[in-house]
Amino acid sequence: MRYGVICSISVVMIGLAWSFIDLNQSLFTNGVFETLTRGDLLQTISQKNTDFSAASVIALGTVMLIALPVISATSLFVVYSIKKDRIYSLISFSVLIILILALLLGSSL
């Protein structure tokens, strides 16, 4: 998980550096900062994917950071299920359900 955080933060830093270098893609003047703070990350990535902007790179790094706990809980659930450890499988599945519900309910607000 540590390497995933380092990788996602690196992607965000590359996007930030790109936005400071290229003044035409400033995060504050083009309204991109408001889009990123509203929580429309997936929409920002899909809309900005055609022109590959700094905002899409920052949004990609943020989505990577959000996906890390889901990937971790899913992999733990699979490992505990293979080992037939019912208690830890149930705990990791519960954590996975809570994470998915939080992501779905949080994105609708």
Structural features, described:
- By secondary structure, this protein is mainly α.
- It has one domain.
- The chain is built from 5 helices and no strands.
- The longest helix has 29 residues, at 54-82.
- It is elongated, with a radius of gyration of 17 Å.
- The two termini are 28 Å apart.
- The model has no long low-confidence stretch (mean pLDDT 77).
Task: Write the SSE topology.
Elements: H1 2-21, H2 32-38, H3 41-48, H4 54-82, H5 86-108
Provide a compact summary of the structure.
By secondary structure, the chain is mainly α. It has helices at residues 2-21, 32-38, 41-48, 54-82, 86-108.
The H-and-E topology, N to C, reads as HHHHH
Low-confidence stretches: none
Total E-strand runs: 0
Give the overall form: elongated
Radius of gyration, whole Å: 17 Å
Helix content: over 70%
How widely separated are the two ends? 28 Å
- Tally of helical runs: 5
Mean pLDDT across all amino acids: 77
Beta-strand content: under 5%
Largest sheet: none
Specify the structural class: mainly alpha
Overall domain count: 1
Features:
109 residues, mainly alpha, 5 helices
